[in-house]
Amino acid sequence: MAGQLRVHLGAAPGVGKTYKMLEEGHRRRERGTDVVVGYVETHGREQTEAMIKDLEVLPRRTVHYRGTTFTEMDVDAVIARGAEVVLVDELAHTNVPGSRNAKRWQDIEELLDAGMTVMTTVNVQHLESINDIVRQITGVPQRETVPDEVVRRADAIELVDMAPEAIRRRMAHGNIYKPEKIDAALGNYFRVGNLTALRELALLWLADKVDDELENYRAAQGISDTWEARERVLVALTGGPEGETLIRRAARLASRSRGPQPTDLLAVHVARNDGLSSGGSHANLVAQRTLVEDLGGTYHQVVGNDIPKALLAFAKGVNATELVLGVSRRGRLQSLFSPGVGVTTTNGAGSMDVHLVTHAQARKGRALPKVRNALSANRRVAGFLLATIGIAVLTVLLAQLREQISLDSDVLLYLAAVVIVALVGGLWPALVAALLGTVALNYYFAPPIHRITIAAWENILALAVFLIVAVAVSATVDRAARRTREAASAQAEAETLSTLAGNVLRGAQPLPALLNQLRETFNFNGATLLQRRPDAGPSPDLQHDRDAWHVVESVGRTLFAPGEGDAEVQVDETVSLALCGHPLAAEDRRVVQAFANQAVVALRQQELSEQAAAAGPLAEVDRMRTALLSAVSHDLRTPLASAKAAVGGLRAPGIEFSPEDQAELLASVEESLDRLTRLVDNLLDMSRLQAGALAMHPQPTSIAETVAIALDEIGSPAKDIEVHLPEEFLEVHGDPVLIERVLVNLLRNALRYSPDDSPPMIMVSAHAGEVETKVIDRGPGIPIEKWEDVFLPFQRLGDRDNGTGVGLGLALSRGLAEAMGGSLTPDVTPGGGLTMVMTLLQSGPLPETELETQSKQAFVGDPQAGAS
């Protein structure tokens, strides 16, 4: 049995999540639980170190990488120890290359599979789904991330929360960072606004997780009553002109909520499949849906015969707390015969608050009601009652008027009664009415009276025609009703599929949107798309074999095999759609099959996108190889040819060179070999950079010293370069050697294109926690639309010459800058020319995991794995 995972989620570094984890470990040990420390990083914090002393700490595993020694959690040792509870810090940590797993959360999954309970920590900024939001807020990239699903699968998530002011006090007291970094931290990452935003992100993310758990619990326990744990305002739309009024009123109700959680705004339209129109139009619904989504709400559509029942079922399914309805458009006379949707829904709402909103169309009446086009059981019963009682009453009345009304008139009146019964109850009640009417005419009105015989042939003909016409009319009315019902069902299906297409087009994730719309439309508890595993062999009971299937996507309750649900739709031999909640009605199977087919199309598109993404790098490698061969054929051969010609001249027999000529030839050889060395170094570095294996040693680096070293590297051509440095001492976070490489490439490129009377200029400035180094030239410049082309490997703009190189300088420079967490971008030089701007983070406090990475790791790993 797999173990349990408990996650301590922190809003920011320093809130005390590691301390809380250790406290929990102590509590469990005091209760007799076997607790060990698999890996905990104290960062030199005395309080944290004191919490570890009384706990058993397992030895770490030593890893050697590129001449440096690192320590990581020893997974084998932890499993061999076999403790009940293991404390493992830093869930998002990236392991040193060469470890058995790339990420620590993968190590933890092995411990869980071994049956251990694992307690771990993670900060909200390391969750994959909000990583870009955190970077936008704080301006600091988070390279170590963990998939949200890993944290969502945890059996327990505890939010370790602290007010921003309290975190800043802890920082000021030296409880988070070392004293020399406190001022910079308080002025950058640990600003009140940043901490408040991170805290809100953590609370909202956890609220969604808790909301999912609540819905799963309600579904598992079969609870349909509304639990007001979170305010949800639901507005019912018919497509009528009053829809916008209802939506805006519902939005105001949602905005006025003062609950602990943000209020959700939902809109729902019930599409009837019994042929009764709601009196609205599809165009109105489209406009109202747009309005709902513009106001931050969500639009839903369900199908149901009984509108109040379907509306209440959906409201309880989404746990709505308030329901907004429009006052009925029925006139007073219509209200006498039917109470309307609003009254019926209010009577069945239970604990849900119902708001009946008046509008301009209220009580103005509707168009004449259409004839019912679905023969319900109630209508059939009413038809039979009318056939028996109505024919009896008509017979009594006509018997009183036997002397005043002829037999022909009696036949017409009975025929009218049969038509009325057919309109009310359909074919079979009308046939009963026709037979009863024939017997009544024969016995009471056709001579001889009170006998089942007919004396005159014309009376026999009249009764026969009556029976034939009555049966024909009944059949026609019944057939028309059935055709109308089928048309109404088709219209409901079309509206559902139209809404489905709209959700897929609007949604960034087609599969979840499809399955969620299917679940809501047909009121299922869960919908799961399953795909048969390629290695699954023939199974006698494939529908119940979990090992033969894997879950592609699921909403609501998750099923793991087609046979586990209440219904299933087999799309093909490898894909099945499993549904739970209730059996699938036969009339709904066609629409559900369309959902399933569309889900498979989305699945195939997703697979093709993944294949295209995998093929993209291969195509790029092929392009790079072709470009490299083209470059080698010219640029690498040129310095070789120059050096060989000079050496050949020196060795030529019979030619004596003066010392000056010999010195010039040797200088030419040296220059050619130096150029060749630079080209080869650039090629090797570019290859290492793309492979993620470029050695990097980030540290606080003086930008002024690095500029001076770069100018010395260039030599005599650098004497004319203008240098403008700020008076204050600036340090950047990066590798000094790589920064120098970038500056040398940029300065040489600027010297190559600068006019003799306008030398390049280098300027350094700092703002917003970043240091910008600008290399400015007054050359011909580059059109804006061509800016990105100069960063492509083996690409050059302008004419070729022997000193141009293979076109790697700027491409390599941008790669090096980005590897250090910075950027390299072009800009326009006022008055003409090009400015290259290298931006690096100013040396100061980094987010928690990056500080750990800085102190422990000296490598660049896979960028997608998040290694620092």
Automatic annotation (TrEMBL):
GO terms for cellular component: cytoplasm; plasma membrane. It comes from the Bacteria. InterPro entries: HATPase_C_sf, HATPase_dom, His_kinase_dom, HisK_dim/P_dom, HisK_dim/P_sf, Histidine_kinase_KdpD, KdpD_sf, KdpD_TM. GO terms for molecular function: ATP binding; phosphorelay sensor kinase activity. Its EC number is 2.7.13.3. This is histidine kinase. It comes from Kineosporia babensis. It catalyses: ATP + protein L-histidine = ADP + protein N-phospho-L-histidine. Coiled coil: none annotated. Residues 847-868 are annotated as: Disordered. Keywords: ATP-binding, Kinase, Membrane, Nucleotide-binding, Phosphoprotein, Transferase, Transmembrane, Transmembrane helix, Two-component regulatory system. It is found in: Cell membrane; Membrane. The chain crosses the membrane at residues 381-399, 411-436, 456-477. Pfam families: DUF4118, HATPase_c, HisKA, KdpD. Residues 631-844 form the Histidine kinase domain. It is a multi-pass membrane protein.
